[in-house]
Amino acid sequence: MDQRTQLAMRILLAEGPRNPEMAGMWAGQIMGKAIGPLLGWAQNMMAQGKLRSMDPRMVLIMLNGPIFATMILRDLLKFPPLQDLSNESLTRHLTEMILAALPADPTDSPKE
Are 90 and 70 spatial neighbours (Cβ–Cβ below 8 Å)? Predict the structure, then answer.
């Protein structure tokens, strides 16, 4: 994460709980670019029977939670064991692990 993003994350973590407008701005402008496509993708994969049926927001939580936790530990708190973990490696491996754990249940039929 670059310094500007680190600063924005620090401000958001410190002020977001006290300032709903700031949290809303982050949700709308920053996460809004990722949430819609990710939820649409998850819904599509579930409809095709390629991903376990569930609330698609759970896929969002499973992916974003560990990413945000790593960003906080690595970039804000400078946790030494995570300093050489790249964003690309984090997202690639995390996505592979989570998607491997969510195959469609064979008893579910694809939704039409």
Answer: yes
Could you read off the pLDDT of 38-86 as tens digits, one per residue?
A: 899 999 999 998 899 999 999 988 988 898 899 889 988 899 999 999 9
Distance in angstroms (rounded) separating the CA atoms of residues 76 and 1: 9
Kindly report each contact of residues 83-88 with a partner whose C-beta sits within 8 Å and lies 24 or more positions away, as own/partner: 87/1
**What is the pTM for the complete model shown?**
0.69
Q: What is the DSSP string of the chain?
A: --HHHHHHHHHHHHHTTT-HHHHHHIIIIIIHHHHHHHHHHHHHHHHTTSS--S-HHHHHHHHHHHHHHHHIIIIIS--GGGTT--HHHHHHHHHHHHHHT-PPPTTSPPP-
Q: Are 76 and 14 in contact (CB under 8 A)?
A: no
Q: Which two tokens stand for residue 17?
A: 């709980």
